[in-house]
Structures are given as structure tokens and as C-alpha cells.
């Protein structure tokens, strides 16, 4: 079962409440029975599933799902998503990590530059007023 390859067309074909698939981390999950049980509501899953032709990985990861939530996934597994199809799959590693580290580096610079300028100003004041 887990070795089954699901194509983009198959993913998109399962888009109704009678049968709904979602693509997460390069794997396809059948969320049909889980829709009504999802603590975040069915709409958010429907928005990422089936005929939207989307990869739900980013939405799933952005919520910061718990280990308990992740532990529910194996039971819903249908198979692997085709690797060289229309849709480029996302892995947990590739999704968002470069962006978040860039933002982090950016925010460090945001503090670093003004503080350096402030320090330089006070150093200048210290030396010019001290020797006058
Ligand atoms: C099959 C895939 C999914 C499973 C098994 C799942 C499972 C869960 C579970 C167990 C929770 C409770 C909190 C936790 O334990 O983290 C939760 C919360 C939530 N989920 Fe999902 N989820 C799935 C997909 C998604 C997707 C695609 C979205 C889209 C944005 C989403 C959005 C949310 C939100 C917003 C909450 C927070 C609800 C709240 O605390 O009010 N989930 N999910």
C-alpha cells in the first residue's frame, strides 16, 4: 500500500467529501474520514486538498502540528506522490527553512546596524567633548 505511486491526476480526482486526498511531505493521505474529526475544522484541509492541486506541506507545517497530529498520518497513508510530475513536492526540510533563516539573519542585522551607529556616535562624542 505504502509503495503505491499516486499521480497528480489521481490526487486531483479525490476532491470530494466522499473521497479526499491531501499531499503532505511527498506522500498522499486519505483524509476523508478525518475531515469531521480535525480540530482545525474541515475547511482548512479542503483548502489544501484534492482538486486544488496544491501541496499542503507548508500549510500543515505553518500550524506547528504536534507529534500527536503527525502520529495520525501513517494510518491515512495511501502512497508516495509521483516524483517527476507537474507538481514539485515539498519536504519538511525544504519547506520554509531557508526563508525563516533569512528572516532571522535579517532581523539580527536590523539591530546590529543601528546599535553600531549609536556606539560610533557616543564614541565620537566621548572623544570630542573630553578633549575640548
Ligand atoms: C491529514 C492531515 C492533518 C492532520 C492529521 C491534522 C491534525 C491536527 C490535530 C491533531 C490538531 C490538534 C492540535 C495538534 O495536535 O497539533 C490540529 C489542529 C489544527 N490543524 Fe490540522 N491536521 C492536518 C492537516 C491540516 C491542514 C492541511 C491544515 C491547514 C492549514 C491544518 C490546520 C490546523 C489548524 C489551524 C489547527 C489548530 C486548531 C486550533 O487549535 O484551533 N491541519 N490538526
UniProtKB/TrEMBL annotation:
Statement: the UniProt record of this protein carries the keyword Transferase: no
Q: Which domain of life is it from?
A: Eukaryota
Name a Pfam family for this protein. Cyt-b5
Kindly give the InterPro entries that the UniProt entry links to this protein: Cyt_B5-like_heme/steroid-bd, Cyt_B5-like_heme/steroid_sf, Cyt_B5_heme-BS, Cytochrome_b5
What are the recorded GO MF terms, alphabetically?
A: heme binding; metal ion binding
Any idea where this protein resides? Endoplasmic reticulum membrane; Microsome membrane
Question: What Gene3D superfamilies does the annotation carry?
Answer: Cytochrome b5-like heme/steroid binding domain (3.10.120.10)
Annotated membrane topology: Single-pass membrane protein
- Residues forming the Cytochrome b5 heme-binding domain are 3-82
Lineage start: Eukaryota, Fungi, Dikarya, Basidiomycota, Agaricomycotina
| Family note | Belongs to the cytochrome b5 family.
Q: Source species, please?
A: Fistulina hepatica ATCC 64428
**Per UniProt, which keywords does this protein have?**
Electron transport, Endoplasmic reticulum, Heme, Iron, Membrane, Metal-binding, Microsome, Transmembrane, Transport
Return the protein name: Cytochrome b5
Amino acid at each position: 500500500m505504502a509503495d503505491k505511486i499516486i499521480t497528480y491526476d489521481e490526487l486531483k480526482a479525490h476532491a470530494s467529501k466522499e473521497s479526499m486526498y491531501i499531499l503532505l511531505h511527498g506522500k498522499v493521505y486519505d483524509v476523508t474520514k478525518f475531515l469531521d474529526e480535525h480540530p482545525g475544522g474541515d475547511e482548512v484541509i479542503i483548502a489544501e486538498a484534492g482538486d486544488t492541486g496544491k501541496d499542503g506541506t507548508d500549510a500543515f507545517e505553518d500550524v506547528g502540528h504536534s507529534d500527536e497530529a503527525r502520529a495520525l498520518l501513517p494510518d491515512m497513508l495511501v502512497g508516495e506522490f509521483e516524483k517527476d510530475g507537474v507538481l514539485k513536492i515539498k519536504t519538511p526540510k525544504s519547506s520554509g527553512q531557508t526563508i525563516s533563516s533569512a528572516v532571522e539573519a535579517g532581523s539580527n542585522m536590523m539591530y546590529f546596524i543601528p546599535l553600531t551607529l549609536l556606539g560610533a556616535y557616543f564614541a565620537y562624542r566621548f572623544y570630542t567633548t573630553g578633549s575640548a
